[in-house]
Amino acid sequence: MNKRYLITGANAGLGKETARQLATLPETEKIYLACRNPVRAEAARKDLMQITGRDLFEVVIFDTTDVNSAKQVVSQLNEAIDAVVLNAGGMGGKTPEKSTPSGMNVLAATNILGHVALVDELIAAQKLNNVVLLASSEAARGIEKMNMHRPNLKTHSTEELASVLNGAYFHPKFDAMQAYGHVKYVATLWMSSMARKHPNIRFVSVSPGATSGTAAPNDLPAFSRFMFKYVMMGVIMPLRGMIHSLDKGAKRFVDGLTDANAHESGKFYASKADKLVGPVIDQGSLFADLNNVQYQDNAYEAVHRFLA
Q1: Considering the chain, what percentage of its residues have pLDDT values greater than 90?
Q2: What pLDDT does 235 receive?
Q3: Residue 18 and residue 88 in contact, taking contact as beta carbons nearer than 8 Å
Q4: Contact 193/299 with Cβ under 8 angstroms?
Q5: How confident is the model at residue 216 (pLDDT cuts 50, 70, 90)?
Q6: Where are the domains of the chain?
Q7: 251-265 per-position pLDDT tens digit
Q8: CATH for 4-212+245-305, among 3.30.200.20, 3.50.50.60, 3.40.50.720, 3.40.50.300?
Q9: Which of 4, 15, 32, 58 could form a Cys-Cys staple with 81, CB 3.0–4.6 A?
Q10: What is the pLDDT of residue 230?
């Protein structure tokens, strides 16, 4: 049973809604809101307390692009947590292709770098008991309806997977939408590798599906943000039944955390083929590369190159 949670990117969107839903479970005793902005984090904490009527939220400052930030978070925890939700991420803002001090570009670092460091630090400190849940995306298996192509790597070598994370794979033109799916793919492979390395902890990747109210489009460039958020997600996708509410997206995370029978360790659960909403299935049945053990271990090696 999970009693204590840590959720990254918990001040808005899916992270905040997941915190709200978890707080409604009677067994929940503590929820750490791991956020980059302390002002927004504190506002979210107060709002969640008012909405749920429960005083069990605590803010910890966490920047997913900074490895040292993960160490600081873990050092602040006075007790082990039962589950961590790796929810923070996005499209990398105005300069997603820009390199960070780690060597990853901004987009990859925002989605992967700090999360890998956080999980490693929690395990090393014996402060993680039961579950790691990664917020993945159908983009990791391709969304042709949205022109987000399935990752089609040539070798899946450690070098090639690392090139996805530093951006060299996309040379000469960096497309944030395509890079986002590839980065989520590498992160999902890393999770499957971790499941085999740490069989006492359940590692499960879950896509929230196409979700209204998510903060992900907010850091796209202005024109792309307008087209994606207000035209695609605001008009076209609702008309085609391709998007669901924020609470349904977060419910996928809650189910992944609480229903171990339906969410096997090392697997990636998302919508059925050609769907972005509705019931989730094991994506390995749609994209065999996700099940390749060598690819998974190469992804593990690739992401850890940037933590040195």
Answers
A1: 83
A2: 45
A3: no
A4: yes
A5: low
A6: 4-212+245-305
A7: 999 999 999 999 999
A8: 3.40.50.720
A9: 4
A10: 42
Please count the other Cβ atoms lying within 10 Å of the Cβ belonging to residue 130: 18
Give the residue among 178, 221, 196, 152 at the shortest CA–CA distance from 296: 196
User: What proportion of the chain, given as a percentage, has pLDDT over 70?
Assistant: 90
Contact 98, 107 (CB under 8 A): no
The region, left, alpha or beta by phi > 0 then psi within -120 to 50, assigned to residue 62 is beta
CA distances from 189 to 41, 204, 205, 262, 281 (A): 30, 11, 9, 19, 17
Report the candidate in 86, 10, 80 with the shortest Cα–Cα distance to residue 45: 10
- In tens, the pLDDT along 21-31 reads 999 999 999 99
pLDDT digits (tens, 9 = 90+) for 222-240: 655 544 554 455 545 554 5
Phi/psi for 129 (5° steps) reads -95, -50
Q: What is the pTM of this model?
A: 0.93
